[in-house]
């Protein structure tokens, strides 16, 4: 966790990357869809921000906009800014935007096999990027490629640079992707569902690796995920998204123990848990969020979550919906009833594990 | 104790690995499933957990009769279905139905929901209703929580969770006694997963169904399974009642698997020990000698003074043993409960 008790209040930590009031629309056959609606977040050096949401929440679109990777059309950035150390990337010409990101902001995707070129060796793809971007000699770039694979703990790096992507396992491919992302010493790393396609024991390896590299380099890490377990174990702050909007922003500990938005609370109640909670009836029904996420083409009036919300009152159905506002120090929520939600008893957590004679290593 | 409805006895499935274009010769075999025994009891759920390469999906395919085992028996109500003729196997398929992982690719996009669900009646005429098929389909839709008036709609008009309900309705159309569910909720959003789990549990209560529930997600399995079997590289390494397997896992692999699940609880950060396994699952075409897990085992090295892997782990294939119905295949089973807070003693956290 960062030392910042306010959870990254802007006055106390200098943000490296700031997304502000971002609005992204897509032209679809059903009309214009607002995939991201007024999203703001920021991340500082050494900090991990998690952007959480279910499918269609818009969590990935904001990162593509940051990287200049949105296909326009059909996408259109209606308004907003993406500032890296004060420079608005969205105001730059596309090519310059991409180059700027290449130097400072890197991205790791979910599907490493699709992101790597199958007809070139991993070493070639790594050196190519280095030669093109840093102007070093091919020989020096090759040395650096091996170094990078070593860094992400690919065994026998010196031999494996000669292998093609299909010769790597899923976990090893994701390591290669991370090596590529680190090639130009980025200050910000955006990881979009980096472990979703991996087995759980491999996921643990990759998350450990990312956290170590981040701590070593004081990198800012933006982790885009649907997995609340991953958020709880690595992130400092969290932005919870629903139907294109940020509905809650808070330090992770606060959001998970005393959520300010009913959606966050409902999500935490409905996540299947490995451990039985104290007093839990294991044969009782799982708590669920009724209904399903709304279609972006036909959002309900007022708060998008109100049809599924247990707390909703008449005022929730009225436009304009609740704006994201400060509800406690360092915490924002987009809910008329955030104060009531905050007054709820905390989300039950498992009792702390006593010291065990059996310890893994 | 409920009676055993479906039993798998020492089932083996090897796929030959062939080389050569004109003259093919067999150079080895992928041992996808290698001597697995399971018992599914009436009205109960057996959770089958494992990572990729564990053989859990191959086992599902064997159970529904899409593949034939290389050796071993599959007994449905005491009859070995691997020795049945075609007609008898057809009857089996009616009794054992499958629900697939991906509700986006497992439904024909050109068929209406009514056609998808009603098609089952044509494949298994014995199960077709005497009266109106449409009425029967609508009844099924209602049973799985869908609007019966949507019978003429097409798959693309439904969300992922609703599509999975269509898949369940299709499976139920022929009145099966066993549902093989292969990762039925892993493609769904968290807020929808619980709905489908609750539906499956309700259907089990109402219809007395038995489930073989295959998943990689241990947390999901805990919410539905009565018994759990953990697979690694084609073998069952641990099996037992839910409380035993989750409360005091005996196989080091099960412990590692549980410790690797990130828990949605930031208060545990820094208080979980981690068991991060090294490396990847070895190839099932050349599994390690002795215990198949010994190449990645974190526990074996602690049994010797110098930290080396003990000889039995390297040389002897461990059998499933234990007291009562909680069994594990390990020469040095781990004892003791997991921590009061976690399902495993050492739970992963990333030191910051």
TrEMBL record, chain B:
<comment type="similarity">
    <text>Belongs to the ABC transporter superfamily.</text>
</comment>
<dbReference type="Pfam" id="PF08352">
    <property type="entry name" value="oligo_HPY"/>
</dbReference>
<dbReference type="GO" id="GO:0005524">
    <property type="term" value="F:ATP binding"/>
</dbReference>
<keyword id="KW-0067">ATP-binding</keyword>
<dbReference type="InterPro" id="IPR017871">
    <property type="entry name" value="ABC_transporter-like_CS"/>
</dbReference>
<dbReference type="InterPro" id="IPR003593">
    <property type="entry name" value="AAA+_ATPase"/>
</dbReference>
<feature type="domain" description="ABC transporter">
    <location>
        <begin position="6"/>
        <end position="258"/>
    </location>
</feature>
<keyword id="KW-0547">Nucleotide-binding</keyword>
<dbReference type="InterPro" id="IPR027417">
    <property type="entry name" value="P-loop_NTPase"/>
</dbReference>
<dbReference type="InterPro" id="IPR013563">
    <property type="entry name" value="Oligopep_ABC_C"/>
</dbReference>
<dbReference type="GO" id="GO:0015833">
    <property type="term" value="P:peptide transport"/>
</dbReference>
<dbReference type="GO" id="GO:0055085">
    <property type="term" value="P:transmembrane transport"/>
</dbReference>
<dbReference type="GO" id="GO:0016887">
    <property type="term" value="F:ATP hydrolysis activity"/>
</dbReference>
<dbReference type="InterPro" id="IPR003439">
    <property type="entry name" value="ABC_transporter-like_ATP-bd"/>
</dbReference>
<keyword id="KW-0813">Transport</keyword>
<dbReference type="Pfam" id="PF00005">
    <property type="entry name" value="ABC_tran"/>
</dbReference>
<protein>
    <submittedName>
        <fullName>ATP-binding cassette domain-containing protein</fullName>
    </submittedName>
</protein>
<dbReference type="InterPro" id="IPR050319">
    <property type="entry name" value="ABC_transp_ATP-bind"/>
</dbReference>
